[in-house]
Design goal:
The complex is a heterodimer of chains A (323) and B (412). By secondary structure, chain A is mostly helical. In chain A, 76% of the residues lie in helices and 2% in strands. In chain A, strands 1-2 form a two-stranded antiparallel sheet. In chain A, strand 1 (70-73) and strand 2 form a beta hairpin. In chain A, helix 4 (93-126) packs antiparallel against helix 11 (240-255), helix 5 (132-144) crosses helix 8 and helix 11 (240-255) packs antiparallel against helix 14 (292-322). Chain B is an alpha/beta fold. Chain B folds into 2 domains: 6-123 and 283-329, D-Maltodextrin-Binding Protein, domain 2; 126-280 and 346-411, Periplasmic binding protein-like II (D-Maltodextrin-Binding Protein, domain 2, 3-Layer(aba) Sandwich). Chain B is 44% helix and 12% strand. Chain B has helices at 6-11, 26-35, 50-62, 77-82, 103-109, 132-137, 146-159, 173-183, 202-216, 228-236, 248-255, 295-307, 309-317, 326-329, 332-335, 347-357, 368-383, 389-406, and strands spanning 14-19, 39-44, 69-73, 119-120, 126-131, 188-191, 194-197, 241-245, 263-267, 284-288, 410-411. In chain B, the strands form 3 sheets. A 5-stranded mixed beta sheet of chain B has the order 2-1-3-10-4. In chain B, helix 17 (368-383) packs antiparallel against helix 18. Classes of the chains: A mainly alpha (323), B alpha/beta (412). The A-B interface holds A 73-76, 159-162, 182, 266-271, 273-274, 284, 287-290, 292 and B 50, 54, 57-58, 61, 82-83, 171, 193, 222, 224, 226-229, 232-233, 366-367, 369-370, 373, 376-377, 380-381, 383-385, 403, 406-409.
């Protein structure tokens, strides 16, 4: 193997040398050109990304921020109001209502989802399972289902008269279950999110577990550790950084919840109002109330909440790690 | 292009972009193109209801991408008029066809200064659809007044628990507005930038108390409308009636099997015994935009689609839209068709009478989408146990007044 590999690379090296040697008569100028080229090259290669990044992320952000400093009304047109929209957002009960709801949602959903993901990843990684590839894909598939389809699917499953769960319960004499009523709605939504994103997180954990050196397993076995002890005491601590990252991703995802409540609104209008989540609130402000400026301010306020929540968790995790 | 003489330019084919969601609309578009070969119309369906309006508003905001003509429901006209984007069709002679339309529909698309903002397309005068089988079995009589209706509802609840006189349609603000319209509710009046807002007036309170009593007595259900569950409830006889619009009979026929032959239509219950006042729910118009490069052709298109005898009759016979033209409403043959789904009853006759009884004095808000959303939110909240329906109207009044102030209106 090594010998066959060596020959093409040396050939390439020779070719490269030949190419640079040929036109290198005015040596100094060529040298300078190469230096300039070296300095420029990264930017040239980065340019496509930077252009798209600036065009599709930075520019809209700046535009939205600029929008959030104005107020356009049906009568009177647009005028500059400075940070007025932000002051209003801070005092807006509807906004904080949504944030509070999502924190509740997150406290319910994130531990369950990541806990399950971790358990499945450890089981898959331990080699106890037959058809590992099959299970890996099976758990991951819900993530590949578009959120819209998932919400419609679960909307049917949750139906109080025709949903299979409710029908089963009725057939067994327990009566119908209304998953979308008062206290049941938030857990029902959380369940959809668990179903959707568990597999995704499981894959991340699984990948991290795969990179844990195998010789540690031998070492712990020699020291008399059971597979369970090995999983909990050796593997788990080694993937803590990955877990922290997934928690942060989950916090961000949770605070941006939109699709599920948006689609479930038709089924549970008495529970899901137009400011059920901050993102949904921003959506209705812009597209129903025509308050584009205030909607932009709410989006930035949500961004700030996300930043604070993620940073807060990071601080917490770091402090825990140091102790 | 600019150098060419005007005559040459006039011969160029004019292209119109038309947004509508009604099925098979291409049929009428083709009729128009056949009659006016110099104008080609491109039909696009960008979504039904809210998505359609969101896209219109986005195009208005962006300053490009707006169609020349768009479908516009009666309750959206005031909102788009407020944005100053609806073209006045009066200069193009559209006023000539005005007398052909049922008065309230024409009044809805015009203002006192003689401007014409749209051409009526179809309508939804209100009536009552009920289950003859459920009524017979429980010895109910067809209600003439709302008091009768409530009485029968209680009777039905006592005789057949688990069966409801109807489902309270508060999850659809369009229904709420329509039923309140009949009761005499006039929540808005716009005069320049002065806006009267009286959402929680005595009429609304009385109306709210009426329905609250039925809800508290569990004589009516409070499930969301338009869900599969809700349709099934109508089909299964869980809901014995539905106070609804003229487009509903065909819709029911298309979506129900079990209750075939059991449905009947009756006039909308009245608040006063012997009263003859109804209202409208839904229905659309054709509106052209000021941004159109071909306002004349756009106006011609609106007029043709709404008033051409062949095209407008087709709306009824092919798409089953309820007409807005006097000729069609008076057409005995058209309105006198018996439907087996309704036990052979000529249901359209009931709604044709209703069409002529629609009170024309109702005015929508210049930001009706916002009002609808607040109504839906607060009614739902009341149904979920947060206060009474009457209190929900107080909350809507407060939020709408503060919104209107915020939007620069002088609230009266």
């Amino acid at each position: 193997m090594p010998t066959t590999r060596a020959s093409p690379s040396s050939e390439l090296g020779a070719g490269g040398r030949a190419a640079t040697a040929a036109p290198a008569r005015p040596a100094a100028r060529a040298h300078r050109r190469i230096l300039v080229g070296r300095k420029l090259a990264p930017y040239v290669f980065l340019a496509p990304f930077l252009l798209l990044f600036a065009g599709f992320l930075i520019a809209p952000l700046l535009y939205a921020f600029q929008m959030s400093l104005f107020r356009e009304t049906l009568v009177g047109g647009a005028r500059f109001v400075g940070l007025d929209n932000y002051v209003r957002a801070i005092h807006d009960g509807s906004f904080w209502d949504g944030v509070g709801r999502l924190l509740q949602f997150g406290l319910m959903q994130i531990p369950v989802m990541l806990g399950l993901a971790l358990v499945f990843a450890l089981i898959l990684d331990s080699g106890l399972v037959l058809a590992r590839g099959f299970f890996r894909v099976a758990f991951f598939i819900p993530y590949a289902v578009p959120g819209v389809i998932a919400a419609l699917l679960w909307g049917y499953l949750y139906g109080p008269a025709f949903g299979p769960f409710s029908q089963m319960s009725e057939a067994m004499g327990f009566g119908r279950i209304d998953f979308l009523s008062g206290g049941g709605l938030l857990p029902s939504l959380a369940n959809i999110a668990v179903w959707e994103y568990m597999g995704y997180n499981m894959i991340i954990y699984y990948a991290a577990l795969q990179s844990v050196p195998r010789d540690l397993e031998e070492a712990s076995a020699i020291d008399g550790a059971t597979p369970l002890q090995h999983s909990l005491r050796i593997k788990l601590p080694l993937i803590v950084p990955t877990i922290i990252v997934t928690v942060i991703f989950s916090i961000i995802g949770t605070l941006q919840l939109f699709t599920e409540p948006y689609l479930m609104r038709n089924l549970a209008p008495s529970q899901i109002n137009s400011h059920y989540t901050p993102n949904y609130y921003a959506y209705t402000l812009a597209f129903t109330s025509q308050q584009y400026n205030y909607s932009a301010a709410i989006s930035f306020a949500l961004g700030a909440v996300v930043a604070v929540a993620s940073y807060g968790f990071m601080l917490l995790a770091n402090r825990g790690g140091r102790r | 292009m600019a150098g060419l003489p005007a005559v040459a330019r006039a011969q160029d084919k004019v292209e119109l972009l038309f947004w509508a969601w009604t099925p098979d609309t291409q049929t009428q578009v083709d009729l128009f193109q056949k009659k006016y070969p110099g104008i080609s119309v491109k039909l696009e369906n960008v979504g039904q209801g809210p998505p359609h309006y969101v896209k219109l508003r986005n195009a208005i905001k962006a300053g490009s991408g707006l169609p020349d003509v768009a479908q516009m429901e009666f309750n959206s006209i005031a909102s788009f008029k407020q944005l100053g984007v609806l073209a006045d069709l009066a200069p193009y002679g559209v006023g000539d066809v005005g007398p052909k339309f049922i008065d309230w529909t024409w009044k809805s698309v015009t203002d006192n200064s003689g401007k014409i903002y749209a051409v009526p397309w179809d309508s939804g005068p209100m009536g009552l659809l009920y289950r003859a089988d459920v009524f017979d079995k429980n010895g109910l009589s067809v209600p003439e007044t709302w008091d009768d209706y409530a009485e029968q509802a209680i009777k039905l609840k006592d005789k057949a628990p688990g069966t409801f006189m109807c489902d309270f349609g508060a999850s659809d603000a369009g229904w709420v507005c329509a039923v309140l319209w009949q009761a005499g509710w006039r929540p808005f009046h716009l005069d320049g930038t002065n806006l009267k807002i009286a959402i929680n007036d005595d009429i609304a309170k009385k109306w709210a108390t009426y329905w609250q009593k039925l809800i508290d007595a569990k004589a009516i259900d409070v499930k969301p409308m338009w869900t599969t569950e809700w349709f099934a409830g109508l089909d299964a006889g869980t809901y014995a009636s539905w106070v609804t619009a003229a487009w509903a009979p065909v819709l029911m026929q298309q979506s129900m099997k079990k209750s075939f032959g059991q449905w009947r239509a009756a006039p909308m219950p009245q608040w006063e015994k012997g009263g003859k006042i109804t209202s409208n729910w839904g229905g659309s118009t054709f509106a052209a935009f000021t941004a159109s490069k071909h306002p004349k052709e756009a106006a011609l298109f609106c007029q043709f689609m709404g008033a051409d005898p062949e095209a407008s009759k087709l709306w009824n016979t092919k798409q089953f839209l309820f007409p807005v033209l006097k000729d069609l409403i008076d057409d005995k043959e058209l309105m006198g068709h018996g439907y087996d789904f309704y036990g052979g009853q000529k249901v359209n006759e009931i709604f044709a009478i209703s069409e002529n009884q629609v009170d024309p004095s109702f005015e929508f808000a210049p930001f009706q989408d916002y009002v609808n959303q607040q109504l839906q939110d607060e009614m739902a909240s009341a149904i979920a146990g947060n206060g009474t329906l009457a209190q929900a109207f107080d909350r809507v009044q407060d939020t709408v007044v503060s919104y209107a102030n915020d939007q620069g209106f002088t609230v009266l």
